Structure formats: C-alpha cells, structure tokens
Amino acid sequence: MWIAGGTQRPHEADYLRELKTFADGLACREQIRFVGERRDIARLLAASDIHCQPNSEPEPFGLAFVEALHASLPVVTSDLGGVREIVTPACGVLVPGGDAPALASALQELIDDPSRRAALGAAGPARARALCDPATQVAALERALQ
Which pairing describes strands 51-53 and 33-36: parallel, antiparallel, or unpaired? Predict the structure, then answer.
C-alpha cells in the first residue's frame, strides 16, 4: 500500500504523524509505504492495482478519482459528495463514509477477484473521458448555451 501526498497545514502534518505511528504498530507495516508528495503520479497509478481514497468528508469534485479512472484503476471510496457523480458501479465501489468494515470488505473483494478488478478498471477510461474530455465538455456547453 502506497500513501502518497504531502502536507500543507499543521493539522495535516499532525495527522500524517498519527498515521505513521499507527502504521508502525501493524503487523503488515513492511507492506506500507509513505511516498510523500510526488510529481510522477501517472507512474504510481500505472503501477497500482486499485485506487482507494476513503474520504472522511465530502469534496466537491475529486480530480484524483478521474486520474485513477483514466489510468484504468478501479476506485474504492466513500459515498460522499461529488464522488457520486464520478464513480459508478461500472468503474468502482462506493462504501458508506466512515464504515471501515465495508471499506475493508470492498477492497478484499477486489483483491480476491482479479477479473472484477480488471472489468472495473477497463470501464474507467471511458468514464474519465465522459467527465473530463475537453471536446466532450465543450460540446455539452455549446448544447446548454443553445
């Protein structure tokens, strides 16, 4: 498991320290990598099997989800906010926010079922294009304005 991202605010730094301390106490600690802020996200996504981002609060639009879909990764995330407009059952799994057992179950199902993982991942690029392809969006804007 790779945890990517840097901190910008003091409470984020505190959270990262807490997360690292928690991870240090786990039996699977050797499988967890805190990779920090990265500029090669496309490379990380290409080397990944699943994009898991269980948000604790809704966000209006998650570009990270679209990037993961574009990279043919199935997405597992919390059913909160704008992600409902991004991730469909064809390309990912939404779990109730804050429900760790549901999150673990969804991840385990995808880990155990490579064909489902591949099917969800294969649907990702088309979903990403439908949401963010410039030509598609300009055409939709033109239709709306007419």
Answer: unpaired
56 and 79 Cβ atoms separated by less than 8 Å: no
With contact defined as beta carbons under 8 Å apart, do 58 and 77 qualify?
no
Q: With contact defined as beta carbons under 8 Å apart, do 19 and 3 qualify?
A: yes
The tens digit of pLDDT for each residue in 53-88 reads 999 999 888 999 999 999 999 999 999 999 999 999
Distance CA 91, CA 74 (A): 6
Read out DSSP for 61-107? --HHHHHHHHTT--EEEES-GGGGGT--TTTEEEE-TT-HHHHHHHH
Place of tokens 């591949």: 118
Residue 79: burial class (beta carbons within 10 Å; 0-12, 13-18, 19+): middle
* pTM of the shown model: 0.90
